[in-house]
Amino acid sequence: MANHKSALKRARQTVKRTERNRFYKTRIKNITRAVTEAVEAGDSAKAAEAFKDANKNFHKYVSKGILKKNTAARKVSRLSKLVKSISDKAA
Length: 91
What we know:
The protein is mainly alpha-helical. The protein has 3 helices and no strands. Helix 1 (5-41) runs antiparallel to helix 2, helix 1 runs parallel beside helix 3 (69-90) and helix 2 packs antiparallel against helix 3. The longest helix is centred in the N-terminal third of the chain and has 37 residues, at 5-41. The model has no long low-confidence stretch (mean pLDDT 93).
């Protein structure tokens, strides 16, 4: 256990940050899963709506400093490719 005042503070900060990071990591996984499940179900309207939400949230997380710009771009690009594949099959 921490003995110094500064070490106690760092321990408190670590707990807060760990909780916050877990929330955002889970949120990112759930957003991604919503898009992939809609694509697997073959529902292009639902997939497009989920992708729109994912795009908005990932870029919001970039502005908050949770994701790096290229990471968000990569995730959005991969999801976009997935959503596009379902519309190509329909056409």
